[in-house]
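User: Just a sanity check before I run the rest of the batch. Below are the structure tokens for the first item. I only need the designed sequence back.
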């Protein structure tokens, strides 16, 4: 799965979790960009991402994420590790 496909899937997840069909995320998007992206939404975004991509993140990995691009890189790393 390439970065474009991951970003498109994440955009769908963000629209669903943040309940806003107008959202268009980029690699630089962060919680500071969206009022609805609070701590509870963040947990829901991570869980939905894990389910969508069939991966599991460690707490330490999630805590260090600063933006969507870093989440994409983590997803890519997990997918590559799965083979």
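Assistant: Here's the designed sequence for the first item:
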């Amino acid at each position: 799965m390439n970065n474009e496909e991951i970003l498109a899937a994440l955009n769908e997840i963000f629209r669903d979790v943040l309940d806003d069909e107008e959202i268009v995320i980029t690699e630089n998007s962060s919680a500071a960009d969206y009022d609805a992206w609070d701590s509870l939404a963040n947990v829901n975004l991570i869980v939905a991402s894990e389910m969508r991509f069939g991966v599991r993140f460690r707490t330490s990995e999630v805590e260090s994420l600063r933006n969507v691009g870093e989440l994409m890189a983590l997803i890519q790393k997990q997918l590559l590790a799965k083979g």
